[in-house]
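Example record

Each entry pairs one chain with its bound ligand, pyridoxal-5'-phosphate.
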Amino acid sequence: MIPFNKPCLTGKELRYMQEAVASGKLSGNGEFTHRCQTFMETRYGFRKCLLTTSGTDALEMAAMLCDLQPGDEVIVPSYTFVSTALAFIREGANIVFVDSSWQNPNMDATQLEGLITEHTKVIVPVHYAGVACDMDAIMALAERYNLLVVEDAAQAIDSTYRGKPLGSIGHLGCFSFHETKNITAGGEGGMLTINDERFLQRAEIIWEKGTNRAEFFRGMVNKYGWVDKGSSFLPAEINSAYLWAQLENLEKIQQRRIRLWETYDKELSPLTERGLFRKPDIPDFATNNAHMFYLVCRSLEERSRLIAYLRSRDILAVFHYLSLHKSDYYQAHSSLRPQLDACDNYADCLLRLPLYYDLEKQTVHQICSYIKEFYNEFIEDSLLGGR
Ligand SMILES: *Cc1c(COP(=O)(O)O)cnc(C)c1O
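Structure tokens for the complex follow.
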């Protein structure tokens, strides 16, 4: 079976993990953590980076930094992972869902202004598949209405908007290094980026269990204690060591993923031209970090049949999010019942194809030929009325 995903291993991960163990310092905020954070700050110009144990944790830290009061509203796309909304729910906020664009699953920025009320505090753009949201439009609204912007850049490492790295544009940014992302910290991991000076000090305190331990270690205070809310958001050094090996090979990983992505794109173009499905849309302002290659099928039924067809040929293709506005949790906890047709359409029709570092180009060709086979049979089937 060709899996949908396989975590990437570039060669030095185990050696660096061993080094971390041998150093005798395994808890967070150590040497490998510093190396990773400095790498990110230097390469992408993030004002400050803090590694976390997950992307979810980075979002939770961001939500805490937004200092929300009960009744405050946070605008989130409905087509996203649970954590994007959950992190703000935990801080007592009300979630207001915005629909996706029909161009791609990102939030439709033209609908945002209509959702802003006197209670709105935060907008959370999710850069789906590593493709940028319309950040100029979003940042302009944030400025006009005095809102914070937290970028959910979980899938967006090494991608840009008009040349600016994703995660560096909003006040705060959140990345994930889960094993399904382009680079991983050994299974679970994440990172918070702090681009607005105002949040620097408090971010470190929240990161370190509500203490000013980080300042203490820099010699800025002579004892440390409990000063704020927080949690234990720091990853262990063996996770940072794994991540460091991946960062050293970031170019290689990205080049390979992009080559595979482009192979899908080229092979499947004739089918999109026939209108059988849509391929990922990359707006002019965005780059493609090859996080994901997806199709948008014409119907739920067609997608189900394609999944089954590929599975019968040992290929695992998977759908993605269910609309969060229709989730049991949201229905039970919110009185809002928005109609979000584009989001529902992606929930029903989007299909992700295998894409990972070790995937052979030959296998991509094979997968594409199965998809062509499927559509030739499917179309013929429908024409004959033989469904
Ligand atoms: C992966 C992901 C998350 C969560 O990251 P974890 O590291 O799994 O906690 C949040 N948002 C989006 C858009 C993601 O893709």
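The first strand starts at residue 48 and ends at 52.
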